[in-house]
Amino acid sequence: HLANYASENLEAMNPPLFLRFLNLLMNDAIFLLDEAIQLEHDRGEWESLAPDARREKESSLQMFGQLGRFHNIMSNETIGTLAFLTSEIKGIFVHPFLAERIISMLNYFLQHLVGPKMGALKVKDFSEFDFKPQQLVSDICTIYLNLGYVRKICLS
């Protein structure tokens, strides 16, 4: 019901609740992927640091590692939620008002997960950071499949 109401009122002065939810969900997905970390420790830059500076870096690294793990968990959940939503609700996602934004977000993820930017996401132990690129790609493919047929019908 919320999705139908949002579809009918996409251009209302006060955006419907479901539309605001979708926008926030997409914003979160992009933000969370952007917050992925690259570890300086692997580049050997710590060898030349004084012991105090090294301890400070290690403390920061641990904090950033925990933050990175949280961002990965939330990215997985956010994209998983979109996959779930698109399995049942399709109309609002293929509306021109929202379709380009969703396509851009999904393509942005794919560029970083399997495209030319995938080298920027370097993690030694995926499980330590809850980094699940295969699941993200699978969920993104599910979203495209869920919406692809509907989009094709809308364009016909």
From TrEMBL:
Keywords: Transferase, Ubl conjugation pathway. Pathway: Protein modification; protein ubiquitination. Residues 7-148 form the Ubiquitin conjugation factor E4 core domain. The keyword Nucleus does not apply. It comes from the Eukaryota. This is RING-type E3 ubiquitin transferase. It is an enzyme of class 2 (transferase). Its EC number is 2.3.2.27. The lineage of its organism: Eukaryota, Metazoa, Chordata, Craniata, Vertebrata. It catalyses: S-ubiquitinyl-[E2 ubiquitin-conjugating enzyme]-L-cysteine + [acceptor protein]-L-lysine = [E2 ubiquitin-conjugating enzyme]-L-cysteine + N(6)-ubiquitinyl-[acceptor protein]-L-lysine. InterPro entries: Ub_conjug_fac_E4_core, UBE4. It holds the Pfam family Ufd2P_core. It comes from Goodea atripinnis.
